[in-house]
Amino acid sequence: MLAAGVAAVAGASWTAILPSAFAGLSATMLGLLAWREAFPEPASASRFAVAAPSAATLLDNLPGLVVRHDAVGRVVSVHGRDRGLLADTGGTLIDSVHVSTRIHYLQALDSLRQGADGATAEFLVEAGASFRPVRAHFTAERSAEGALAGFVVQALDMSGETALRDALAEARAEARSANEAKTRFLAAVSHELRTPLNAILGFSDILLGEYFGGFENERQKEYVELVNQSGHHLLAVVNAMLDMSKIEAGRYELVKEPFAIAAVLRSVDEMLALEASRKGVVFSTRVARGLDEVVADRRAVKQILINLANNAIKFTDEGGVVTLDAMIDGDRLLLRVSDTGIGIPADKLALIGMPFMQVQNDYTRRYDGTGLGLALVKGLVALHGGDFGIESVEGRGTVITVALPLDGNSEATGGLIEFPPKLADVKTGENRDGHAAQAKIA
Hints:
By secondary structure, the protein is of the alpha+beta class. The chain contains 8 helices and 17 strands. It has 4 domains: about 5-50, no CATH class; about 65-155, Beta-Lactamase; about 175-250; about 255-440, Heat Shock Protein 90, CATH 3.30.565.10. It has a 7-stranded mixed β-sheet with strand order 10-12-13-15-14-17-16, covered by helices on one side. Strand 12 (about 320-330) and strand 13 (about 330-340) form a beta hairpin. Helix 4 packs antiparallel against helix 5 (about 220-250), helix 5 (about 220-250) runs parallel beside helix 8 (about 375-385) and helix 7 (about 300-315) packs antiparallel against helix 8 (about 375-385).
């Protein structure tokens, strides 16, 4: 019989020592639970020792259900806050386990019999008219010879966790279904818009060519030009929406092939030079010496450069400069578009590349745009397994860098893409002091 006691420690304080023995199945003490508390005088220590809870009380307040068994599985004692789950302490816990999950219980018990000190299993335990999911840890009690003398099962009710897991799974399924429905809707609408757009563009081109006679006045020609320009703008939006829906659904197939990057930059220059000239912006392209062929999807790379350069020209005032560079960095192709435009506020960097999202200020409101350009760029970069980074100083300009593998062998994002790929490692600086705000996705 063990009793609580009081002892002096170093003559400065008194300590209450509270031992509790754990009896084994053969009445042999298997363990001792004890703790010490320091008090300034012996009277306080004695009162604490007398009033201290027993080991059984402590076990009864453990979370879940704690059941000690003998070697054949009979219940010896039941403790824990959920001990009401096992009403008949003279039976066996396995009798309360649902037959469909009983195999998990038996597998854990077999692990102990094979020599393991512990095992974990999940199964259903009867609770009135229903069953509760529990996660149980089995701990072996062994004799001096190492034979299994009994075992302890501590089971935690997982009903709340299971319900939460089911709710999360349902929410994910609903979100996935909604996203797929949105993607199908965008694709369907985009295809439906293409048919009338082809007619609008075709007939407006014929009118502008004056194949069936000239215009009676300049106002007529101006209106037809506006129709044609608007049609091309809408077609670009439709194509971007189609590409986005394909990327989101994992159906955008890259056609990787070797091509001369210089030829692509020349093509982009030819396409955007007129728009830059109209705005009074100096636009130039440069290719590093020794950079010849790269392996990538030519159409996707061209789309990336057009979107980035077009954005830079759009948000750069007259007299500004936009430069498109292609260079080598180790085994990567770096495509860099720099401008002397309006820049991006540090607190808006996280929004860059979100579909249909544009940074709003008095300047940007003067320009048309859907916010799809950079979102599409990020998706195409992710498909190539590349990197995308932004460095910007508000009021001074922006530099956007895209890094793609030179040989096209980098592991790309597979399957469904969380669109657009999220910005990571966002760092901001005090733009008023000329420090650049930076963002990067990997």
